[in-house]
C-alpha cells in the first residue's frame, strides 16, 4: 500500500470511525462487480454519515491525492453498478446520507440526500398522505433518486426527465467545500430550490454527468396527482411501420396531448420483460429465431413494436386527449387500447373471460401491465429487474441481484430528434450488429422530451457463458461506433462506454479540462467519469 | 489613449474594416446613455459582421487586455440599455449578426444569431406560414432574442421562461475560440439543439447572466400554435386581497390549468400603461395621490390588483380550464372575464354599446388589451414602450426612445416562491419605500413558473427633473437592500444593480472566480457583469 493511501485511510478513520472504512478484500469485491466485465480494483470503501463527513473525506482525499469515487446506493445496473470509472479508487458510499430534509406540499417539492431511495420517497409521500407524485424508474426499488438524477436518468410521467425537475443542489467539491447552487448561495433566499436559475450563472448543469463535485442534496420538484390517469397501448405488426408511427406521435408529444415520456418497445424487449429466454423451445440456440419470436408474440399477443403511454388530467381532459390520439392513429396502428386503474382491477378479477373475449393472454400480460401502470402514476416497482435474468438458465430468485448472479447487462442509449427516419436508421444499426453477435436486439424507444427520443438498447447475456463478456463488450463497442458515426450519441455513459465516444471539438475539451483543473487540480474526484482527456 | 488600446484598435480595423470601428465621441455617447445615470465611458464600438470576426475581435481584446463588452441590439431598457457594466470598455455590438440560421417546423425550433430581433423572428415565422409561435416580451420590437435569453428574460405564453427553451448554444470565449454546447460539441450529432443536456456536463447555464462567453447562436424551441387561445382577466379591489388570490392561483399554475406566465399588475402599473402621469389633475404634485388614483381606477374600471392570463388548447380544453378557473375564483375576485380574438374584434366594432352595457371604458382599455392579447399569442408589440414616458411632460413620440428622451426607468424584480404571504411582504416593502421617495410603486407580479413568482417593480421618473436620477438610484438601492434582507433576490441585474447584492457564500464566489480565471484570465470580457469579486 502506498504511504499516501495509508495516511489517508488513517485520517478517514479518525473522521468517520473505523467501522465505516472497509478494506476487507471480500467486502471490496462487491464494489468491483457489475453486470459486465470490469477490471477496476477498489482499495477501500468509505461510508460517511453526514455531509460534514463527506467534506472531510474529500479534504483528506485531496490532501493525500487519493482517487475517490462517490456512489449513492450503487444501483447503476447495466452502467457499471458500484464500480468506479478508474482503477484503485476509494469508493465513497453515500447510502447513509438518507434523510428527506424538507417537504413542501403546497409548492410541490421535496429536498433529499443521496441515500434516499425510490421506495423510501414513495413511502414517505404515502405516509404524508401527500397529493404529490414522484417519478419512478423501472430499476431497483433501492436505487438512489440523486444517483439517477446525476446520470440524468428518466422515468414515465410528465416529470420523466429527472434532471429537468431539479430546483437546486448542494455540492461538495474536491477540496471539501460545500456549494449551494442557484439562489441557495445566499443563505436567506426564499426562492432557493423553487426558482432554479438563481441570479448569475446557472451551475447545476456542471454537476450532472461529471466529476466536478458530489451532489449531497437535491430539491426535487414533484407532480400534483391529476384527477385521473389512463394508459394507452398499441402495437405495430411490421417493424418498418415504426418510422411512420413516430411521425404520427411527434405532433401529439409537441402539442401536449401526450405529456409524458411514452415508450415503444420491440418484440425482443417485450418477451424479455415477460419471461426468460426459451431455452427449451430453442433447443439451446441463440439468438432467438424469428420463427420462435413470432410464436411467442402470437401467444402473448404483442407486435413487432409495442407502444405505451399515459394521459393525465381530469376525466374530461383525458377523454379529449384520447379522442385526439384515436383520430391520429386510426387505421395506422393495431389494437389501440386504453386502460385505467378501475379497468386494471376488473381485469385482474376477470382474467379468464377477458381472454376469451379479446384473445389477450391477460394473466401474463398483467404481470407487465400492472407495474407499467404503476410507473406511469409514480409507483416504483421491483418487478422489472427480473428481466436481467433473460439469458440465465434459472429464473430470477425472490431477491434478484444481477451483479451477484452474474447476469450480463449493458445499456446503450442513443438520442435522436423525434423523426421516423432516425428511429429506423438506429434500429437498423442495432438489429444487424446485435444479431451478428448473437444477442437479441431488445430496444425501447422513449419519447423523452417534446423533440427528442432516446433509443435504449439492452445487451442482455449470461456472464457464466465463457466468452460472452468479451463478445458483449465487442458488440457494444461496434454498435456505439456505428451509431456515433451516423450522428446518434448516447444520453448517458457507463463504465463500459466511458471514453468510447469520438473526440469532441477541442474548445469543449479544453474548457472542461480547465474547469476540472481549477475544481480538482489533483484529479482525485471520480477520475475518468465523463472526462474527455 | 493607452498604447495597448491603440494597437488593439488598429488590429480590430484590419479584421472588421475601418467603418465598423467607431471612435467618434458623439456616436459613442449613445452607448453611454441609459434610462438612469451611468458614468461608464465607452472607448470604441466594434461592429463585427460574422462569428469569425467576433472570434478575431476577442482574440485581439485578450492579446491587448482590452475590456470588451458585448451587446446584441442594446435594448436592455431599464437595466442599462447599451451601457457596459464597467468603465472604459470597447463595446462589441452584434447587431449585424442577424441571420436566422436554421428553421425546423416539424421539430418546432429555430436557430438564430444575436442580432435577430423579436420583430424579425415574428415576420420570419409569418413569411414561412409557420404554425409555430415565438414568445414575445412587451419591450422593443427591435430587442434581441438572444440578448433577452442571456438575461433570462420572460414573456407571456407557456414558453415564457426564455432560457428554459434553449436547446443549445454557440459561444465565443474570451480567447476567441468557438464552443458548441450539448451534443453540438460533436460535429455530426443529430440531436444537437433538440436534446439540450447532451452527454457529460451541461454547460449552457454558464453563459446566461455571466461574463464567461459571448453567445453567438441559440437554438430556440418554439410553441406549436394551439387551436384556440382565450385570455382571462379579473381584478381585486383591496390591495390586501392579493395574498389570498395568489394562494388560489398557485394550484392552477401547478396542475397546468394555467400553462402560461400570468401577470398581476397593480393600479399604478395599469394607469402607467394606459396614460402619462396626470400632471394637470395632480397640479404637478408627486407621487400620485391615492384619491386621484382611485378616480382614475374608476374611470378606467381597474382594481387595486389586476390579473391577466391565458388559456391554450382546443376549444374544449380551454372550456374545461375556464370552468376550473371560474370555480376556483368564484366570489373571491371581481369581474372575471374571458376574451378571445373574435370577441376582441367584436369589441372594437362595438366600443360604444359595450361601454353602455358593461360600464368598461373600452376604447382606452382596448389600447391595453389588444397588445396584451397579442403577447399571449406570441405577437410582439411596440405599444408598451410608451409607458416609459409616464413621468415626462410630453407624450411619447411616434418613435419612442427612452434613452434619447431622458425617460427615467429602473427595474427591480425580486423572486419568491408563489405564496400569498411573500407577495404581500414584497409589496409592503416596495410600497413604503417607493412612496417615501415620491415614486409610484408600479408593480406587476408574474407567476413565471409553476412554483415561483417574479415581482417586477418599475421605478419610473423623468431624468430632466434635477436630482431625480440620484433619488431613483437611492430608492432602488434601499429597496434592494430591504428585499434581499428579507430573502427576496432579483432574478436579474442591470448596470444600476450589478454588485448590489449581499455577499454570497465564499465557496460559490471562489468557484465563479476560478472559472472566470481559466476562461478569461485577463478579465477582458464584460468586467463587472454578474461577477462576484
Characterization of the model:
- 2 copies of one chain form a homodimer.
- Chain A is an alpha+beta fold and 533 residues long.
- In chain A, a hairpin with a 4-residue loop joins strand 5 and strand 6.
- Chain A is globular.
- Helix content of chain A is 33%, strand content 20%.
- Chains A and B meet through strand 9, helix 6, helix 9, strand 17 and strand 20 of A and strand 9, helix 6, helix 9, strand 17 and strand 20 of B.
Short description:
With 533 residues, chain A is of the alpha+beta class. Chain A is built from 15 helices and 20 strands. Chain A starts with a helix and ends in a 14-residue tail after the last helix.
Which helices and strands occur, and which strands form pairs?
Two copies of one chain form a homodimer.
Chain A lengths: L2 H14 L4 E2 L2 H6 L11 E5 L4 H13 L4 E4 L17 E5 L6 E5 L4 E4 L5 H10 L4 E2 L11 H6 L15 E7 L5 E3 L33 E8 L1 E2 L3 E9 L5 H13 L7 E5 H8 L15 H11 L4 E9 L1 H15 L4 E7 H9 L1 H8 L3 H15 L30 E6 L1 E4 L2 H17 L5 E6 L4 E11 L5 H18 L3 E2 L15 H14 L14
Parallel strand pairs in A: 2-4, 3-4
Antiparallel strand pairs in A: 1-2, 5-6, 6-10, 7-11, 8-9, 8-10, 12-14, 12-15, 13-14, 13-18, 16-19, 17-19, 17-20, 18-19
Helix pairs in contact in A: 1-3, 6-9, 6-13, 10-12, 13-14
